[in-house]
Amino acid sequence: MIPLTIVSSRLISSLPLRSQDIMRKRFGLEDGAVLTLEEIGNKHNITRERVRQIVNTSFTSLQDKIWKEKAEPSLLEFFAKVSKTLSSQGSLKREDLLASSLGCSGLQCHLVFLLHLTQNLFYHRETDEVHTFWANKEELVGNAPDFLDDILSLFEEKNSALSLEELEEELDDFAPQTLVSFLEVSKYLVLSHNGKWGLTDWPEVNPKTVRDKAYLVLKEQGEPLHFRKLAQVIAEFQHKFPLTTIKPVLAQTVHNELIKDARCVLVGRGTYALCEWGYAPGTVKEVIQQVLTSSKTHLAKEAIVQKTLEQRQVKESTVLLNLQDKRLFQRDEAGNYYLAR
Predict the structure, then answer these.
(1) How is domain 284-339 classified at the architecture level of CATH?
(2) Alpha-carbon distance 222 to 217, whole Å?
(3) Taking a C-beta distance cutoff of 8 angstroms, is the pair 59, 117 a contact?
(4) How far apart are alpha carbons 244 and 267 in whole angstroms?
């Protein structure tokens, strides 16, 4: 098929010279820079409304050339390919992802220009809530706000990230691929590193701080890590986080953030674990106190050491040294320990 750049150039060359320049600037066909109606008007010393009229008149002229005169058969073939691609994606697709699916990522300006010339595709402009998208079913464009409200309401109700399978079960009115395309269209939703969808402002879905990245990496690793190793893993892992800016990860920054994070526990010298794994906060001495508090009977030294080492990555001698504090720990006649009153 003839390249899109050649097709769009052929079409525009049939317009009056001023209209050619306006259309190129309006769609960024020369250098990718899309100018506003006002910016174009200033360059041609005409009003923005006059620019709008010229754009609309140019579209009418070009559509007649395509659909009445059949002047560009290769373009009609391309439009059929676009429609087929949309159908395979649930009948709608975010504009940049559609360009990628069509192999036109580097030619998106030309693609957008040509798509505006179609008769059977429907356009939804970018808003604060949604990315620009195209559909081959008009009702999907008209009903998009209501559909997206339903999806967002589900996330707010569940208050947790959901897999596509979970979403399909809850939103069974949507065809699976249509649901995926709507998820991609929303600016409030994002696919997280673990393959689940969630709100963009949820730290567990879209971590923005070192603290949240460290928490998610620990959760992903499933075991305590020294802060230096954790910084290394975050640096290797952060490209998986959606919408994140890749930055250097300093070990000392990770240490400083985690020591203030109530979700994490310092379980050894520089080693952190998650509270949700069953680790209790506090010093070794405080852990021993918790062990004795939770016990219904006095405990032998060996039992205290074992239970404390389950909570802290320290030497046995460290536990025994802390156990010698007679202000807190006392022994009965059998040599077992209990908390001092």
Answers:
(1) Orthogonal Bundle (1.10)
(2) 8
(3) yes
(4) 29
Q: What gap in Å lies between CA 335 and CA 216, rounded to an integer?
A: 44
Tokens of 53: 């009229």
Task: Label residue 280 left, alpha or beta by phi (over 0 means left) and psi (-120 to 50 means alpha).
Answer: beta
List pLDDT tens digits, range 173-209: 888 999 999 999 999 999 988 889 999 999 888 888 8
Measured distance CA(294)–CA(304) in Å, rounded? 11
Fold of 1-117: Arc Repressor Mutant, subunit A (1.10.10)
Pair of tokens at residue 329: 């720990």
Q: Crossing angle, helix 17-27 and helix 4-12, to 10 degrees?
A: 140
Residue-wise pLDDT tens digits, 19-37: 999 999 999 998 888 999 9
Identify the pLDDT of residue 45: 95
Q: Order of strands across the sheet with 122-124?
A: 92-94, 133-135, 122-124
Mean residue pLDDT of the chain comes to 91
pTM of the entire predicted model? 0.76
CA nearest to 95, candidates 138, 53, 126: 126
Q: What is the CATH architecture assignment of 143-199?
A: Orthogonal Bundle (1.10)
What are all long-range contacts of 101-106, with beta carbons under 8 Å and residues at least 24 apart? 104/4
Confidence at residue 258, expressed as pLDDT on a 0 to 100 scale: 95
Side chain identity, residue 72: E
User: And the tokens for 263?
Assistant: 């979700």
Q: Domain residue spans in the chain?
A: 1-117, 143-199, 210-262, 284-339
User: CA separation (Å) from 141 to 82, 124, 167, 253?
Assistant: 17, 6, 21, 46
Residue partners of 33: CB distance under 8 A and separation at least 6: 25
Over pLDDT 70: what percentage of the chain? Answer: 98
**Residue 60: both structure tokens together:** 């009418």
The two structure tokens encoding residue 182: 């709507």
pLDDT band at 74; cut points 50, 70, 90: confident
18: which 2 tokens?
């001023």
